[in-house]
Amino acid sequence: MATRLYVDADLQVGQTLALPDDAFRHWVQVLRARLGDGVVLFNGRGGEYRASLKELNRRDARVAVEGFVDINRESALQLMLAQAVSKGDRMDYTLQKAVELGVSAIQPLISERSVVKLDAERWDKKIEHWQGVVIAACEQSGRTRLPRLLPVLKLGAWLDQPLDIGMKLTLAPTAKAAFRDIPRQTSACLLVGPEGGLSDSEISASESCGFNSVRLGPRVLRTETAGVAALSAMQALWGDLG
Question: Strand 48-56 and strand 61-69: pairing?
């Protein structure tokens, strides 16, 4: 697959535009692009654009947009991942793989057992970092639309909000129901706990808000594995995997 770059701008065939700094660093400085090299651009609004490198300077570059491809690689299964924040690169891994698996929205949450404690300014920086992870995963996986990355919320506050989505599921190792027991869905929200899992009271609170507890199997998975495995199962049962 050709190098794909996200550009947050209106794109039109025939235009020439300067590459954003992140795209310049990745394609030109890291991948060593040269004049005439082709690239695929997308702006997260559907489809993608063929372009080539026309001007190359020490600190910037310009590309010519040569064609539009009306292609859609998004899943018809609308999935939201509500993930309690995990520590370090575990959260990065979860976000990256969730994007690859086709989620349409990601809701980071703070739960009772969350070990990450930050002030407002550092949360803003963390969200900015996660947005970069999401963009990079879209570039790599061929997605043409960016999933929504929502602001960090406390679990209780999030549960108090109305959630306009189909099946609401809480991943709980003690649940009796398995994913294969659930009828085929067109949209779903999956709630996953942090390193120590969701507390019994949090699971009960989610159930009182209409969530159904579900398990993956007999083994307890790490937080960075659990969400990815569950999303894979949902896409295999109801979506576009397999």
Answer: antiparallel
Q: What is the pTM of this model?
A: 0.93
Pair 65, 105 in one domain: no
Counting Cβ atoms within 10 Å, is residue 234 exposed (0-12), middle (13-18) or buried (19+)? buried
- Model confidence over 142-172: pLDDT tens digits? 999 999 999 999 999 999 998 889 899 999 9
226 in the same domain as 131: yes
CATH number for position 65: 2.40.240.20
Comparing CA positions, the residue from 153, 159, 81 lying closest to residue 114 is 153
Query: Do 210 and 125 share a structural domain?
Result: yes
DSSP 5-18: EE--S---TT-EEE
DSSP line for 17-66: EEPPHHHHIIIIIIS---TT-EEEEE-SBSSEEEEEEEEE-SS-EEEEEE
pLDDT of residue 103: 98
What mean pLDDT do residues 68-83 have? 97
Amino acid (1-letter code) at residue 221: L
Mean pLDDT of the chain: 94
